[in-house]
Design goal:
Layout: E1 4-7, E2 11-15, E3 20-25, H1 37-52, E4 58-63, H2 77-82, H3 85-103, E5 109-113, E6 116-118, H4 120-127, E7 130-134, E8 138-140, H5 154-162, H6 164-173, E9 177-178, H7 179-185, E10 190-192, H8 197-209, H9 215-223, H10 230-248, H11 254-264, H12 270-285, H13 288-311, E11 321-324, H14 328-339, E12 344-347, H15 351-370, H16 376-384, E13 386-389, E14 400-403, H17 409-420, E15 428-431, H18 438-442, E16 451-456, E17 465-470, H19 476-488, E18 492-497, H20 504-520, H21 525-535, H22 541-548, H23 550-563, H24 565-568, H25 575-581, E19 595-598, E20 604-607, H26 610-616, H27 628-648, H28 655-666, H29 675-682, H30 684-693, H31 705-712
Parallel strand pairs: 3-4, 4-5, 5-7, 6-8, 7-10, 11-12, 11-14, 12-13, 14-15, 15-16, 17-18
Antiparallel strand pairs: 1-2, 2-3, 8-9, 16-17, 19-20
């Protein structure tokens, strides 16, 4: 008969038959287990109980939840990191002692792994003698994604368990690894069906107790130096560092630091190796990159929780969706819905449009099949969920309909009004407009309260963000249902209030304005692109305009300029205007700021376009050099001042959501922690001083009065309090 030996808030220990005991992780009031300070403390208490009872013959470990342990409690990191390196090392030591004690127990240990075992969760598993995984198990060391390295023995145990190459790949990439891969690499000892997991783990433990499995040999394998000769090890480590450094880029030092840590500790025993790891971890924890990425993780959790809370308020879920307009964007949305098991009706006025939408979905799916991420049968099932139609009959069965026709107020208003007549009583109608006011579009509708914006970003299947836009008459139920649908599609969601450009495009076009003024003033747009890419953007502004489409940018700019003429208006012919007039529209036409030719895979490859300089010459001042700092400041100040206005006007509710939206919607450099985080890090006083030096460039370079007041008070945006309604004060 089992007996409860320990019951805590995060785990419990109970006896089983034949001298076995079972440790169960079960964080109370949470859906997943984390290695919080409380977990570390309770694990230490449990280990003391086990160590004191020599009659215990074996330890079985599993989770009461669907997933094992997702890692450390990252919300605790900021306080730990800010206390300094010595405090970080002391923090790591507490759980390193626990894991060492598990590895040194007088009895064998077997862990049953279902779902995720990541970061500290995986490091716990590495300390056990045998690891049995369910077929849905996912293991990984994602610490480098937070700008740090494994700190609870991952750099020590993993290479000794599965070899240097596998350890470097797992740790330096930070990628999750499925159970079949983990089994092949030797990280898992067996993989079984989920309903057989506990039985298989218990069988393994009994085999250890009976002496048929030599668990002591496993421990010896992890306690010795890496088995490489000096030359072999040097070649392996040095080639890995060079490759990983090129892959990670200069803004992300953690992957190379992890390899250096493994290299330094290769010939060491456990205590020395863990000390080396802790020192390297503490060093990474003090970097701005780690602090930014940890802050970003916490804000992402806040954004996701807020979206889920909103979605839970919806009276019903979306079981069938509709798409109006079957172009590339409509096809992309249809694909995303069908992929996530939501049947979708795709309506267009012409068969050619339907063919284009279906072709877009098929192209994306074919790419998944080619990469081995989907079978042809699964592809067929997804395509079968997309119902093409030339009439509104199918739309009447949809719970939510997304309009994705041409970006024109008149066209959209007409299509929306016509479609509304076919909708069921409770259906939500949403527009995928990128710039046009939702309140203005709602004027053509009989039920404006059931209408909102649902702005996807192109390409839909790659861009994670969806902006859900609330119009003047949009109800909470409409917002809740739309947010729930976006989450169904696997998207990140930010809810914003209506204005021209909403949040993302409203702050993007001041950035483009900074670019066009630099070109006007004699800057080489190719140099601007290089500087902004080195700063961390995935692509420079000229290249981004080519990818977005110069015609799309020209149209959106007109809408935003009309809404904010005092800041966005200009009295010169911009480089965007000039390319648009010459029909150099970017990648879609093979010519924009750059020329494009297809590579061997059919993808557009960028090549220089000297003719653009001849086109610009009559409209810009003679070429002159700008320093990198000048370019960065002139590009970023307008984006910051407009984002500040969006927060002050209530377009976006919190700095956290604004930061995450720009990361997910624009590719703002994650290692900088978001735009408000970057502003806080720079200091508001320093920012205002930079902006004032550029005041002659116009109102876009003028900080708001509220920003100046915060600067005078030495305040920070991420110190603002969030009220009960999600706003800041």
């Amino acid at each position: 008969m089992s007996e409860m030996l320990f019951q805590g808030e995060t785990l419990c220990l109970q006896s089983l038959d034949n001298g076995l005991v079972e440790l169960c992780f079960d964080l109370q009031g949470a859906s997943v287990n984390k290695f919080s300070l409380q977990t570390v403390s309770e694990l230490s208490q449990v280990l003391t109980l086990i160590e004191s009872d020599k009659g215990i013959a074996g330890l079985l470990i599993f989770s009461a939840k669907k997933t094992f342990i997702v890692g450390a409690d990252i919300t605790e990191f900021s306080a730990v990191f800010s206390a300094g390196p010595e405090h970080v090392v002391a923090h790591l030591a507490k759980n390193n002692q626990n894991f060492n004690r598990i590895e040194d127990l007088h009895c064998p240990t077997v862990v049953a792994i279902a779902g995720f075992a990541l970061g500290g969760g995986m490091e716990f598993c590495l300390a056990c003698d045998y690891r049995i995984g369910s077929d849905d198990a996912v293991l990984g060391q994602p610490e480098v994604k937070l700008g740090i390295i494994p700190g609870w023995g991952g750099t020590y145990r993993l290479p000794r368990l599965c070899g240097l190459d596998t350890a470097v790949d797992w740790i330096a990439s930070g990628r999750d690894q499925k159970s079949d891969v983990a089994l092949k690499c030797g990280v898992l000892d067996a993989v079984v069906a989920g309903d057989q997991l506990r039985r298989a783990a218990l069988h393994t433990l009994n085999e250890c107790v009976a002496g048929r499995f030599d668990y002591t040999a496993r421990r010896k394998q992890k306690s010795t130096p890496l088995q490489h000769c000096d030359i072999e090890a040097m070649l392996a480590f040095e080639s890995s560092k060079a490759f990983v450094a090129a892959q990670a880029g200069r803004h992300y030092p953690a992957p190379v630091a992890a390899i250096k840590t493994m290299q330094k500790a290769a010939g060491m025993l456990r205590s020395q190796a863990l000390a080396v790891e802790a020192e390297a971890f503490a060093k990474m924890a003090q970097t701005e990159v780690a602090q930014s990425l940890v802050a970003l993780f916490v804000r992402d959790q806040y954004m996701s929780k807020k979206a889920k809370t909103l979605a839970a308020q919806a009276s019903c879920s979306v079981s069938r969706a509709g798409i109006l307009g079957a172009g590339i964007m409509g096809g992309g949305v249809a694909y995303q819905a069908a992929l996530r098991n939501v049947p979708v009706v795709m309506k267009d006025v012409a068969q050619l449009g339907l063919n284009l939408g279906l072709s877009e979905a098929a192209k994306i799916l074919s790419s998944r099949v080619k990469r081995g991420r989907m079978t042809p049968d699964a592809m067929a099932q997804v395509l079968n969920r997309i119902e093409p139609t030339l009439d509104y009959a199918g739309i009447s069965r949809a719970d939510l309909v997304v309009e994705a026709v041409v970006e024109s107020l008149d066209v959209k208003a007409s299509v929306l009004a016509e479609a509304e007549q076919s909708l069921s009583k409770g259906a939500v109608l949403a527009s995928n407009t990128s710039t046009i006011s939702i309140t203005a579009l709602a004027k053509s509708l009989q039920r404006p309260e059931q209408f909102c914006g649902m702005h996807f970003f192109n390409p839909v299947h790659r861009m994670p963000l969806v902006e859900v836009i609330r119009g003047e008459k949009t109800t909470d139920e409409t917002i809740a249902k739309t947010v729930a649908f976006a989450l169904q599609l696997g998207k990140k969601v930010v809810v914003v209030n209506d204005c021209a450009g909403f949040l993302i495009n409203r702050v993007l076009f001041p950035y483009f304005a900074g670019f066009t003024m630099l070109v006007r003033d004699g800057a080489d747009y190719r140099h601007i692109d290089k500087v902004m890419q080195r700063w961390g953007w995935p692509m420079g502004p000229a290249y981004l305009l080519d990818v977005v489409g110069v015609d799309t940018a020209e149209h959106a700019e007109k809408v935003i300029t009309a809404a904010y003429p005092e800041r966005m208006g200009r009295e010169f012919t911009s480089c965007i205007d000039l390319l648009y007039q010459k029909k150099r529209l970017g990648q879609k036409t093979g010519a924009g700021f750059y020329n494009y030719i297809s590579d061997t895979k059919g993808k557009p490859e960028q090549v220089p376009a000297d003719e653009v300089f001849e086109l610009l010459r009559p409209h810009v001042v003679p070429r002159r050099d700008f320093s990198d700092d000048e370019i960065i400041t002139r590009m970023m100040v307008p984006m910051v001042t407009e984002l500040v206005r969006c927060l002050e006007e209530g377009v976006v509710a919190t700095p956290a959501e604004a930061d995450m939206a720009l990361v997910y919607g624009l590719g703002f450099p994650p290692f900088r922690g978001g735009l408000f985080h970057w502003l806080d890090s720079m200091g508001l006083k320093a920012f205002c001083q930079q902006a004032d030096l550029l005041s002659a460039l116009g109102p876009l370079y003028k900080p708001t009065d509220a920003l100046r007041n915060m600067a005078a008070a030495d305040s920070r945006y991420h110190d603002l309090k969030v009220d009960d309604k999600g706003g800041v004060s």
